[in-house]
Amino acid sequence: xxxxxxxxxxxxxxxxxxxxxxxxxxxxxxxxxxxxxxxxxxxxxxxxxxxxxxxxxxxxxxxxxxxxxxxxxxxxxxxxxxxxxxxxxxxxxxxxxxxxxxxxxxxxxxxxxxxxxxxxxxxxxxxxxxxxxxxxxxxxxxxxxxxxxxxxxxxxxxxxxxxxxxxxxxxxxxxxxxxxxxxxxxxxxxxxxxxxxxxxxxxxxxxxxxxxxxxxxxxxxxxxxxxxxxxxxxxxxxxxxxxxxxxxxxxxxxxxxxxxxxxxxxxxxxxxxxxxxxxxxxxxxxxxxxxxxxxxxxxxxxxxxxxxxxxxxxxxxxxxxxxxxxxxxxxxxxxxxxxxxxxxxxxxxxxxxxxxxxxxxxxxxxxxxxxxxxxxxxxxxxxxxxxxxxxxxxxxxxxxxxxxxxxxxxxxxxxxxxxxxxxxxxxxxxxxxxxxxxxxxxxxxxxxxxxxxxxxxxxxxxxxxxxxxxxxxxxxxxxxxxxxxxxxxxxxxxxxxxxxxxxxxxxxxxxxxxxxxxxxxxxxxxxxxx
Length: 530
Ligand SMILES: Cc1cc2nc3c(=O)[nH]c(=O)nc-3n(C[C@H](O)[C@H](O)[C@H](O)COP(=O)(O)OP(=O)(O)OC[C@H]3O[C@@H](n4cnc5c(N)ncnc54)[C@H](O)[C@@H]3O)c2cc1C
Prior knowledge:
Number of helices: 18
Distance between the termini: 36 Å
Largest sheet: 7 strands, mixed
Helix content: 25-40%
Number of strands: 20
Strand content: 15-25%
Structural class: alpha/beta
Bound molecules: flavin-adenine dinucleotide
Shape: globular
Oligomer: single chain
């Protein structure tokens, strides 16, 4: 067993594995230590719901992975990764029976919106898509590189010019409700954007929900929201296979309990079995910021100021997920929903706003917003022909103060989890009468179950911390740590708690790896200079 490496990566989530691959490409010997028995973090699939059905245990749709320069550069198709798309990207059926649909290609989406919601919605969608064409790919590059993004930021500014640059900055600062009011006269296009914004913990009335919703929708229109053929775990398999081919190693079942710090620098880690692994050049931590600071690294080795900043760190809300094996397709009232990989469920914008405010203020919603995945529709390998492997999740308050439709307390014991799963199924049933009759088996993952399955999903938080503006860019995870840099030399934060945050894009890991390489180069230059 190796007990020395150039770099030790703590955690084999997508960020840890991308970081490890980048370091291995530079000839570093990399050892990835993973607490669980399998690598992948929140990118994993299984057959626990039903042996004939593949279920994505956590993440499913990967537009951010497709758009990510860091992941694209790894050429994972050479290591077995293949993508699959649903006929349409996203559907949002409404209470009035209409359905907004996001398709690949602006013409397909805008034509559909114009037909179902009027020519204004179609024209507004084309305007927002034209803006995307102007800023692509510089915007995505700017968001996925360390802040401030000098090169892509300058390219973006040059592309837009000062006047349009200012207008673009204004749009980025809008709420999604306001963007909808400015661009559309009906609700279809606004609901597509608002549902996308609620993938993060952003209120439809708060900035930067317009920017977030627009970005995710435009990525879907350009790249689709694809899934790895065979299950999310095949993305992890490709990352691990590539790393191993480059001489790296992933050790599962190896929980790191502390980072060894001497003289202000990280020298290695200790694991739960008492072993030490020395890191000659760097330690990269793919763990949430609160698990690193004051957890793996003692407060004695950290500035007092950081402790005070971390006290203000905000988690994103909890997540409650149900996976289903269905003996037939979901019988949607709105036909268009049948062809979509993802279906967003909320009757209208007011309902979406109520839900978001309720979750933020501790109340368990009666009418939850659901994100639902139709996995066999997206990738036919997931379950036998004619059946559907499906899931839905919603966000729940981290601390439940009131249940708006019953007596649930947020204790999430067996009775509560079953009751809340029943409530979510009733919600799907209201858009697809006959849905419940198609359920062959289900698995419920409460916030507690999610955390038990991956300790980084603290309280069921899936983004490594709130995506609210006050915890983005230079404020992530706390002001002054500068993204992946930490107050400890040779120690880097590589998880979704660092800029640019949650999602499977590997950018947090890539930024940490590049910071480690840069610092190592400088250190060597200094030594040679002496
Ligand atoms: C239910 C759910 C659905 C999601 N859906 C999507 C989606 O469709 N698309 C998308 O882009 N994103 C999605 N996400 C978000 C995405 O999966 C995460 O943002 C992403 O996985 C974060 O990657 P990470 O590497 O930072 O952390 P993780 O994936 O959480 O990996 C961290 C790893 O570190 C390990 N670890 C933690 N502490 C230690 C320790 N002390 N020692 C050793 N190992 C340790 C953990 O066991 C884990 O394997 C979803 C997340 C969840 C939970």
